[in-house]
Amino acid sequence: MHRIAVYPASLDPIHFGHIDVATRALRIFDEVIVSVYSTPKKNVLFPIDERVALAQKCFQAYDNISVTSFSGLTVDYVRSVGAIAIIRGLRVFGDFEFEFRMGMANKKLAPDVETVAILASEPYIHISSSTVREIAELGGDVTSFVPGHVAEALKGRFA
């Protein structure tokens, strides 16, 4: 049985914490689809095509990680690609409450889809996309948080 999981996120921008969770999910699943949510409720810095392209470059060395975009309910997308699980990353305690509520709602909508939480590795627990955006906007060095091509994209966005 080929086990597929979807890792949905806005990835605005993608950072080392996202990459860590997606690659570690391969220990559990045969394939991970990193799915960039095209219309999050929050304001985004990068348009969907750019967020997808930045993520694709991060995972180009992995044959079993693909990057796509989606809109609508996550569980509908998960079913449409034949996945059995939704991957979520947990960094701090506050993440747990939000992810728990979301996981319970998804379970109600799609009892056949599991939510799997992967704890962030210690070097990445402090990284969030909003923190990366703020540091970049203020001219700070984000190269310890994001791959080089993402740092360059942020630099260009705030130039």
Describe the overall structure:
It is a single chain. By secondary structure, the chain is of the alpha/beta class. The chain has one domain (4-125): 3-Layer(aba) Sandwich (Rossmann fold). Helices cover 40% and strands 19% of the residues. The protein is built from six helices and five strands; from the N terminus they run βαβαβαβαβαα. It has helices at 16-25, 48-58, 74-80, 93-109, 129-137, 148-157, and strands spanning 4-9, 31-37, 65-70, 85-90, 114-119. Strands 3-2-1-4-5 form a five-stranded parallel beta sheet, with helices on both faces. The longest helix is centred in the middle third of the chain and has 17 residues, at 93-109. The mean pLDDT is 95.
Percent strand: 15-25%
Q: Give the low-pLDDT segments.
A: none
Number of helices: 6
* CATH evolutionary superfamily: HUPs
Write down the Rg. Answer: 15 Å
Beta-strand segment tally: 5
* Corresponding CATH architecture: 3-Layer(aba) Sandwich
At CATH level 3, the topology is Rossmann fold
Shape: globular
How are the strands ordered across the major sheet?
Answer: 3-2-1-4-5
The overall pLDDT average reads 95
SSE order: EHEHEHEHEHH
Distance between the termini: 48 Å
Name the helicity range: 40-55%
CATH class category label: Alpha Beta
Integer tally of domains: 1
Largest sheet: 5 strands, parallel
Structural class designation: alpha/beta
